[in-house]
Design goal:
The chain is mostly helical. 76% of the residues lie in helices and 2% in strands. The model has no long low-confidence stretch (mean pLDDT 90). Keywords: Cell inner membrane, Cell membrane, Membrane, Transmembrane, Transmembrane helix, Transport.
Length: 322
């Protein structure tokens, strides 16, 4: 029988276990309090809006990374795919109508993700190797198609997307709303949909899932394809914010996405992780960057802090599993 919250807290070490179990939420709250104490501008609408805009692109690919990691895989290609797909969207929106350009970009992203999915699921290639290869290819193609220079939006459709990406609805940036909708849809999928439950089952025990009749290869293929489609969505958002597609976009975003998922408590071995915790992980990374920027800390020390937090998050997972 499951213990009530009061009973859990009253057991030996119960409070510590409770704090460890919900460490992501507590870390987020502490960072918000700390940010408010060190800076008077933290809670201003401009700063909070900029924070949400900055994390939305990485947040979307983090959700794609989550569903891949839930199967026990990894996707190192998403950052480079953002660059390639941002360039592709900029080219397409200058040629075709906006809805068609968006659709074509997402289809291309789905197709690129399918390449990784096919190599991993059907050719039994290690996810690290397959996605590392696609990462290199995608970054190279982004420079080839852009000829090494940013591709600027020149049409009315491109200008509309730029306005959409830089404006807000009810005080919330439009691109953050898109991110939150994706988080909610993923949360519902993982908790209530058969697809979500199956990918968690595969990550928990792939062999048992296969023996029970689950088409493991099919679902492993699909999670990489979905990750590619979400990378395309992030690329459209990022390109629209700046009114151009650049081959330099998405640099090291795959690492930030992995960090956000791990900080959110997901296991790199698969089978454990939630969309809401990944959202918390994304916001924690964003808050850390925001705090350090407010303190005028250079970018290189920020990378050190992020690495230390990843180690801390993994150690917390080990403590929680004991």
């Amino acid at each position: 029988m499951a213990l009530t919250l009061k009973q859990q807290l009253s057991t030996p070490g119960g409070i510590l276990k409770f704090l460890v179990k919900y460490n992501t939420i507590f870390i987020f709250i502490l960072l918000v309090i700390f940010s408010a104490l060190i800076s008077d501008v933290f809670f201003t609408s401009v700063n909070l809006s900029n924070l949400l805009k900055q994390v939305s692109g990485i947040g979307i690919i983090s959700i794609g990374m989550l569903i891949v990691i839930l199967t026990g895989g990894i996707d190192l290609s998403v950052g480079s795919m953002v660059a390639l797909l941002a360039v592709a969207f900029a080219i397409l929106v200058n040629i075709f109508a906006l809805p068609l350009a968006i659709l074509m970009t997402i289809v291309i992203g789905f197709g690129l993700g399918s390449v990784s999915g096919y190599l991993v699921a059907y050719q039994k290639m290690a996810p690290f190797v397959a996605t590392l290869a696609l990462m290199t290819i995608a970054r190279g193609l982004s420079f080839i198609y852009s000829k090494g220079s940013p591709v600027t939006f020149t049409t009315v459709g491109g200008q509309y997307m730029s306005n959409f990406a830089n404006n807000s609805t009810l005080g919330i940036p439009n691109i953050a709303i898109v991110f939150f909708i994706i988080v909610i849809c993923t949360m519902v999928m993982l908790r209530y949909n058969v697809f979500g439950r199956l990918i968690i089952a595969i990550g928990s025990n792939e062999e048992a899932s296969r023996l029970s009749g689950i088409k493991v290869n099919k679902y492993k293929f699909l999670v990489y394809a979905i990750s590619g489609a979400l990378a395309a969505t992030a690329a459209i958002i990022v390109a629209s914010r700046t009114n151009l597609g650049s081959p330099n976009m998405g640099m090291a975003w795959e690492l930030d996405a992995i960090a956000a998922v791990v900080i959110g408590g997901a296991s790199l071995n698969g089978g454990k992780g939630t969309a809401i915790n990944t959202l918390m992980g994304v916001l924690i990374l964003g808050l850390i960057g925001n705090i350090l920027n407010l303190l005028n800390v250079p970018s290189y020390p920020q990378q050190v802090v992020k690495g230390a937090i990843i180690i801390f998050a993994v150690l917390l997972q080990r403590f929680e599993s004991k």
